[in-house]
Structure formats: C-alpha cells, structure tokens
Amino acid sequence: MQSVDIEPVRTKRTRKRIRRKMADLLALPEHATKIRERLLANGLPEPNSGCIIWLGHIRAVGYGHFSYLNSIDYAHRVSWQLKNGPIPTRHVICHICDVRLCVNPDHLFCGTQSDNIRDMIRKGRAGWHVSPERYAAIGHALGQTQRGEGHSSARLSDQDIATIRYLIQRGAFFPDIARVFEITSGYVSNIAAGARAEAV
Description:
Helices cover about 40% and strands about 15% of the residues. The chain has a two-stranded parallel ribbon. The protein is elongated. The longest helix has 16 residues, at about 10-25. It folds into 2 domains: about 5-110, no CATH class; about 160-200. It has helices at about 10-25, 30-40, 75-85, 115-120, 130-135, 160-170, 175-180, 185-190; strands spanning about 5, 45, 50-55, 60, 65-70, 70-75, 90-95, 110.
C-alpha cells in the first residue's frame, strides 16, 4: 500500500536549499549511482505506455517523493536530473505522458511554468478552461492574447462599444450608460477616452 502524506509547509528558500542539495548530490558519481539504484528499485515498468511507475512514498499532490541523505525532491525531478543534469533556474519538469507517478526520463521534459500550462491547455487537462477545440475555434492561438469581443473575458460586444460611443456623442451621462450595460462608469470613461475594448 502506498503512503500519502500531507506536505509540510516550507518556505521558498527552504525548498530551494533542499533541491540544491539534491542537485549537488547528483553531481557526485558515487551518490548518483546509489540514487539511480534506489530510483530503479522503486519503479515498476508499465509495458503498455512505457511509463515507469513510482512505487515509493507519494506526496499529497500526487507526485513521487524521493529522499536521500536528508535531501528530498520529487522523484520525477531526480530521474530527469540523473539523465540530463541540473534543472535550469525557473524551470520545471513536465510529464509528456501526464502520469504524475511516472519517473521514466524519456517521458519528462524541462520547461518553464508557461510551457507547462500551455501543455496542459493543449491536452485539455485544465478543469477551468474550455476544450482545445473550442479554444482554437474562438480564435485563440497559444501564447497570443485575444482582443475585443473574441477575448474570453469580454463583457461587451463590438456593437455594444459602438452603441456606447454613439450615446456618449449624444450627451448621455456615464452612470446612466453604465447602468444600462451593467458596467462601471470608469469603464464607460475608458471607452469615451478611446481606450477601445481591445482589453475588454
């Protein structure tokens, strides 16, 4: 039976120090060999997908927990470092296979958090977002910001903006316009000032 624990609260500085220590240990051949052996002893190859499933301790977030000489890190991060070397600053290790317990270094890639989020959206794993098909259908290209009514947070259509501008030209009061369109007076003011609803 696998154990799951509640991860202790650690400061960002503490986490970096612990991970730096693991990276230092991996740089030493005698420790790297022992770490590799322990990693393989706790991994079970899954023949259909090619994943190597971590059978050791599991953190509350669902990732494998690896400890060695008072140094701890996620098992998949250790696996990637054994094959590829230190993880660059501000980078994370992402799963191609989307199996959190997989420690197969061929199923891992190094990228920024933005890369990880784009990968998540592309694969449709973000519970808060639309499907990849709908994401493409509304004009979003990954990495680009949609403007105007095509933006997922847009409150007004292009026609609404044109109507608001017409009312402003005819002398309507900003609070009255805001009430009709259920927006703030400041929003109406921005439209009047010419800040087109690009970011709206």
